[in-house]
Amino acid sequence: MSRPRPPIRAAVVGCGGIARGRHLPALAALPGRVEAVALVEPDEALLAATAAEWGVPGRYTALDAMLAAEAPDLVLVCAPPAAHREAAAASLDSGAWVWCEKPPALSLAEYDAVMRHEGADGPFASYVFQHRFGSGAEHLRRRIADGTLGRPLVGVCNTLWYRSPAYFEAPWRGRWETEGGGPTLGHGIHQMDLALSLLGDWTEVTAVMSTAARATETEDVAMAVVRFASGATVSVANSLLSPRETSYLRLDFEHATVELEHLYGYGNGHWRWTPAPHPEGAAAAASWPPDEDVPSSHRAQLEALLDAMERGERPPASGRDGRRVLELIAGMYRSALGGGTVRRSRLGPESAFYHAMHGGDPAAAASALEVRTGA
What we know:
By secondary structure, this protein is α/β, with parallel strands linked by helices. Helices cover 35% and strands 24% of the residues. The chain folds into two domains: 8-131 and 301-314, 3-Layer(aba) Sandwich (Rossmann fold), CATH 3.40.50; 132-295 and 324-369, Dihydrodipicolinate Reductase, domain 2 (2-Layer Sandwich). The chain has helices at 17-28, 44-54, 63-70, 84-93, 108-115, 135-145, 176-179, 183-186, 189-199, 279-286, 298-311, 319-338, 352-355, 362-369, and strands spanning 8-13, 34-40, 58-60, 74-77, 97-100, 125-127, 152-162, 202-210, 221-228, 233-239, 241-253, 256-262, 271-275, 342-343. The strands form two sheets. The chain has an eight-stranded mixed β-sheet with strand order 13-12-11-7-10-9-8-14. Strands 3-2-1-4-5-6 form a six-stranded parallel β-sheet, with helices on both faces. The longest helix is centred in the C-terminal third of the chain and has 20 residues, at 319-338. It is globular and about 60 Å long. The protein starts with 7 loop residues before the first strand and ends in a 6-residue tail after the last helix.
């Protein structure tokens, strides 16, 4: 008889809202499989309060000290975006696997730099794209793969959210140096990653962006048209100026239209399948719903990550799979700031947008995004 596995020992870096509201609850929901053994947070009062609330024994104000003392199996990076690269690289070097909040990095160059700290058989760095992991998306992915829906033809991918001016009072928000970009990188990334996980590789993008209403260096609204290797064409809108908030994905296949509307997470009830008016359409619609209803969540993705760790395999939303949406985002910034259509093949190290979403000149990027009204 095989012995039960000891729980995976996890450490959480950063005790802000995303750690307290999503990551620590996800860890607590899987007792016996994973346990939170340490927290890292420079704010000592916040560190003590969070550790007491969640019963975490290890308390550190510096990442290096925690890695040396605790040797965790898994590090959850919940720090602001500018800290992701160093925290992920240091954790990998210590032998820990990494699960990092979005955006994965501030640039493709940073993402690739982190990958160089991975081993051939692990540890690996993966990224929080929890919308992939609900039963609705998993079921749709299978029906696309088996041909039930026919070819994807047309899509809409909207992240229309509202963030007040007060939201940007946090010193790291709305700045190229510390956030890396606006809603294209920090907000719409979830819905765009879901679309890419369903439709596969993109080939070219044409985008426009502007800073229309918020006092930021980065954009507060972006729109794009994306072409896919499958032949599908998808429109994308990312906004932080939309009072009626919604996250909306619509995919028109040969045999059915599939829609998802939610805000920050979904269950099966948020999906709608509409058949095309022919026999294949009826068959496609009859394949919905899935046998189970698993909401999209950090917990659902964490379970998939733990499965991969236990098997010693690269997890989903890592490596090339985790990089694809960041590559699309770099293409959107290059198109919006430089003009014209950008092909995916033109985003290698020779491109300034490989190294920074602003293309190397943050002041010029901010000026280009500014909306000028009047004649």
